[in-house]
Design goal:
With 237 residues, the protein is of the alpha/beta class. The protein is built from eleven helices and seven strands. The chain has a seven-stranded mixed β-sheet with strand order 3-2-1-4-5-7-6, with helices on both faces. Helix 2 runs antiparallel to helix 5 and helix 8 (158-165) packs parallel to helix 10 (191-197). The termini are far apart.
Length: 237
Amino acid sequence: MTSSPIPDPPQEFHDALKSAGIALDPGDLERIASFLQLLYAANERMNLTGVRDPSAAWMRHIFDSLTLLSVLTGTQAVRAADIGSGGGIPGLILALVLPEVEFTLIESVGKKARFLEETATALGLKKVVVRQERAEVLGVKEIRESMDVVVSRAVGKLPSLLEYALPMVRPGGLFVAIKGEQGAAEVVASIHALGELRGVVIEQRRTLTGTLVIVEKTGRTPRRYPREKGEPERNPL
């Protein structure tokens, strides 16, 4: 583990939590700091985050991930998945503050998947499952239409993401993507994909660090989706 201690959350972080109405339980911040310690130690060996200053991670990674909390708690989600979990952002962070939720972290890169497994074990996250596989493979059968909520952050453009995510979401469930300033434009570009995959954007929620694009699954996704490996990205709907 890196010898440099993780700095305490800055006042900006505490102010942002209060502004967003996010209330953490006792011990959550300490558990999140332990996660950051493991993340930055591993980042010395592999590229898990481009945010080199751990103090900046409290807003750019932790707060950004916690903006998803209200969606998960509001839907009383029991099963959730994180597509392209990478360094565990947002999946591991959400699992730390919602230990009762079963989280499936989907990561196709082997060394990143191993980091997720080792970190979940180190943090005592017994309801976290890591799947080293592409999302479009898992969405065909294994976890098809079984998730209450699927989330993603910094993975790709929305038309492709929808084809990865919506096949995994149960009818009536939600897919939530954390997007940046181009979120609204990506929603416009996704009109055809939404119709094909049986989804509707019910909200675009601005936060201090991004935009949550919230999509409701309105019916069963046709069996022809997701298409074969790599096709959603090569040829978005």
